[in-house]
Design a protein that fits this description.
Radius of gyration: 21 Å
Structural class: mainly alpha
Distance between the termini: 28 Å
Strand content: 5-15%
Number of strands: 4
Number of helices: 3
Shape: elongated
Order of helices and strands: EEHEHEH
Number of domains: 1
Largest sheet: 2 strands, antiparallel
Helix content: 40-55%
Length: about 150
C-alpha cells in the first residue's frame, strides 16, 4: 500500500483498480492524512529546542462527508428522486493549536512526551489501516475466485 502499482491487483486474471472502490479510496485518504500527520509530528519533535516554536497539528479529514458522497452515481428516473452529493477533496490543513501546556522560558511549546505519544498513536492507526486494507483486498480476491470458479 502506498505506491501507484498497489492500487491494482489481479482478480481472476484481469486487473481491477481498487481506487474506484469507496472503501479503498477512503483508506487511501486516511493513509495520506496519517503520512502528513507523521511529517508534522516529526517536525515538532525536531524543533523541541527551537526558541519560540509552537507545535503544529493537521486537521483530520471529515469522513462523514466522504461517506455521503461515496454512493454510486444516481440515475434520476423519477422527478421525485433527489440528486447525489458531490465529493469534496482538498489538501490537509496544518495549523498551530492554542498551547495546552505552559511554554518554556524560550517560548517553545513542544512537550516531547506528548509528541512521541502522538507519533506512536499514528503508527498504530497506520498499522490498523494496513490490516483493514489487506483484509478487504483478500475478501475481494476470494469473492472473485468463488464467482469465477
Amino acid at each position: 500500500m502506498g505506491n501507484a502499482s498497489d492500487s491494482w491487483t489481479i482478480l481472476g486474471g484481469s486487473f481491477m483498480d481498487l481506487e474506484n472502490l469507496t472503501l479503498f479510496n477512503m483508506i487511501n485518504k486516511e493513509r495520506s492524512y496519517l503520512t502528513e500527520r507523521q511529517k508534522v509530528l516529526a517536525t515538532n519533535v525536531a524543533n523541541a529546542n527551537t526558541p519560540g516554536y509552537l507545535p503544529k497539528e493537521v486537521e483530520r479529514p471529515n469522513f462523514s462527508d466522504e461517506l455521503k458522497a461515496a454512493a454510486l452515481p444516481l440515475t434520476l428516473t423519477n422527478p421525485m428522486h433527489m440528486s447525489g452529493l458531490s465529493s469534496r477533496y482538498g489538501s490537509y490543513k496544518v495549523y498551530t493549536p492554542k498551547p495546552q501546556n505552559p511554554l518554556s522560558i524560550d517560548g517553545n511549546g513542544v512537550v516531547l512526551e506528548d509528541q512521541l505519544n502522538q507519533v506512536n498513536k499514528v503508527k498504530g492507526d497506520y498499522n490498523r489501516l494496513v490490516t483493514i486494507y489487506s483484509s478487504f483486498k483478500t475478501m475481494l480476491e476470494t469473492a472473485n475466485t468463488k464467482i469465477n470458479a
